[in-house]
User: What shape does this take?
Amino acid sequence: MSAEGPDLVVAGAGGGLVAALRAAQLGLDVLVVEASEHFRRGNNTAMSTAMIPGAGSRWQRDAGIDDSPQQFVDDVMRKTKGTADARLATALADVSAPLVEWLADHLDLPLALVTDFAYPGHSRLRCHTVEGRHGSAMLDHLARAVAAEPRIDMLVPARLTDVSVDLDGGVDAVTVTLPDGNTEVIPTRAVLLATNGYGANEALVEQHAPEISSARYHGSEHSTGDALAIGRKLGADAAYLDAYQGHAALSKKATTLVGWATVMHGGIVLDATGRRFGDETTGYSEYAAALAARPGSEGWVVIDREVYDKCLSFKDFEQTVASGAAVWADDAATLADATGLPAEAVAEELAAVAGYAQGDVPDPFGRSSFEHTLTEPYAAIKIVPALFHTQGGLVVDENARVLRPDGSAIDGLFASGGAAMGISGHGAAGYLAGNGLLPALGLAYLAASSLRTS
Assistant: This one.
């Protein structure tokens, strides 16, 4: 680093590492400040399923999938009922394919297109991921690339607690607080706030997303809203603070992600009364609040051997079943006995679902994807709803620059991921798979790329 400090300070070693690596590629010096020494396992990027949408990627072309950024934007607007920020959605859709190809070509990240099932809301197969479908593998790869890059330094553990500006309102320094309480002021001309949202801040969750405030929080303990506080102090605007990604399938026993592939491959969700209560394929995010509102705020995912085997491609699911969270039963009666659910209700629901799969009658909840018929033996995993991360934050433009309420940019201040407003609209229902990682990685990439000409 020069005596004048780094060209860019990145706060947060999750998706923000993409900004560090992109900036270094462009010849800039970077300092990454990270609050947790266990960030490779404990932040939200590491805890994700590593699903990165890429609309129009070469993997799609090789698979004969016709997709485009506009098709992706259309899906976002449809899922959010027109409430997402179309400008930001377009910017992220446009960069999505170049991003995944850059990750593969420049960083040698071993990405592959997910083709064995479709996530709710995506009209095309466009999610790219790594083997094991787990964010820890992806983040390990990024962290190794950072360690090998001489232009990047890391300060871990340390927390970025303040950003100062000069007389013209542009960034000129950051304040970093060390574990012993001492602080250090570091001059810089640009800062990327990549510290996620406020999911670990109970008061803010209760204020902005009360419907999910009683659910279990399954995210980084350091996601307390630091970026929101820093940005607001500098006069930044914020939006979509009620948006979040929930998940209805967190294992109660293992506290690991069961995953929604269980449902998309043909599984069902029963509540504590042994009954289905909606169309599970609408999306795992909004289904979290739906499950939280059911008796006992918990339920069971019911699958069979075929679905079970298909889901083993997910490291999360593999860890869940390895913990003993899945119970097996030869028929509906023994399933009810194993789960403690009412026998009559379980038998009726399984029989009804078999009828829907055979086309005898339509599902009263409107679920149309019953191509797979659940067959004995059955497996069931007890689930609880969870809050994974918030989806609202500082208002940013197409280059991730943080904006004031009048639309002007705070020179040198950028935000990405949960620190920035997302593209999920309001609440949980607008969330599409990848709406967390794409703003995390994509906005980080755009922010660093914009520094080349600034």
About this structure: The first helix runs from residue 16 to 25.
